[in-house]
Amino acid sequence: MPIYEYEHIEAACSLGPVFEVEQTVREERLRACPACGRPVRKLISRSSFSVPKSNGALKDLGFTKLVKRDNGVYENVTARGTDSRYVHRDRPETLPDLKKTISD
What we know:
By secondary structure, this protein is mainly beta. It is rod-shaped. The protein has two domains: 3-42, no CATH class; 55-100, no CATH class. It is built from one helix and six strands.
C-alpha cells in the first residue's frame, strides 16, 4: 500500500510539520490532519522502485527482451527452451511462445 506525505498548512501538531499516511490509491486525499484536525496538503514525494539490471534477471521475472540486430531481425536475449534466438519480422514461427511465461 502506498505511503503519502502530508504537510500542515498552519502550525504543526504532535505528528510534526510533515507526516506520512498509508492509504490505498483509491482513497481521497486528506484535507485535515488525523491528529489535530488542522488543514493539510499532500506533497509530491520521490518514489523508489527496482528495475532488473541483467537479461538473466528479466528472464527469471518472466520478461522477454528483444534487441534489434538488423532490419526486421531481433535477438531474443531472454530465450527460453525451444524459443528461437532470433526473431524475424516476416516469420511468425520465430516469435517467442508467450504461453510459457504468461499465466493467470
